[in-house]
Amino acid sequence: MPRVNTEQLMPVLSPGRHRNPRRGACFMEYASYLSGARWSDHPACTHPSVAALARLVNDVTSDEARARLTPLIPSVVGLNGTDPRVPLVVSSLAAASALPVSSEGRQRALAAGLLRCERLLAQYTDPVSERVHTVVRAALACAPAAEAWARAFETDDAVSRPRPIPATDEAILRTSVIGIAEACISDPDARLVALLTRVISESTELLRPQEPATVDLRVRVLA
Asked: If DSSP codes are grouped into helix, strand and coil, which group holds residue 142?
């Protein structure tokens, strides 16, 4: 009986959508495959904001570096919930990562988006929100001209101008990811992988809270 190479049965990460695993898989299609759900790049197993970022990062990462994303895929399976902080955290981290390295035009839009995110984050005092707020402040400090422009845009006399901030969270993510991919930096792939890794980590803390008291109780009973 011929030997079967299990690696040949697994999808290969590649950009775009795919009809089935034999034709390859994007990040989220691979996640749907691992979850046992119907083949889809919008599987129910992952929060929509995290999934949106994952799809974008998968598509713009170079073919040579895309394999770096593979170890992250299992961590998004089951990462879902309705916590209102997650979209804010994902958008904030993406825009903050892109702002210091993006072109001037994108910097203005990203700075305007970050100011909005900063105001919304201010209503939360949990560790994740506070860490993300610090990241946002540091990013804005790296682009003071963009922040100044964004603040001026928000004044009353700027109301009649066309609004440059993306209208949806996914548009903010697209602006951020493309800004990183096209930035004049030595390794944009590394920055994209680091962004997705950070987003997954912070989202996991929000959506999968630890329960140390339960664990401690069991230890005491067994003792």
From this structure: helix
Q: What is the pTM of this model?
A: 0.83
- Find residue 25's DSSP bridge partners: 13
Domain extent for 12: 6-76
Structural domain count, the chain: 2
Closest CA to 177 of 57, 42, 58: 57
Beta bridge partner(s), residue 151: none
For the record, the structure tokens of 126 come out as: 């949990």
Cβ contact 90:207 at 8 Å: no
| CA 38 vs CA 55, 72, 78, 123, 131: distances in Å | 17, 20, 14, 38, 36
Single-letter amino acid code for the residue at 152: A
Whether the Cβ atoms of residue 15 and residue 26 lie closer than 8 Å to each other: yes
Clarify whether residues 107 and 167 are in a common domain.
yes
Query: pLDDT digits over 104-157, tens only?
Result: 989 999 999 999 999 999 999 999 999 999 999 999 999 999 999 999 987 754
For residue 18 the two structure tokens come to 């795919």
For 147, list phi and psi in degrees, rounded to 5: -65, -40
Buried b or exposed e, range 168-185, using 16+ CB within 10 angstroms: ebbebbbbbbbbbbebee
Backbone angles phi, psi at 149, to 5 degrees: -60, -45
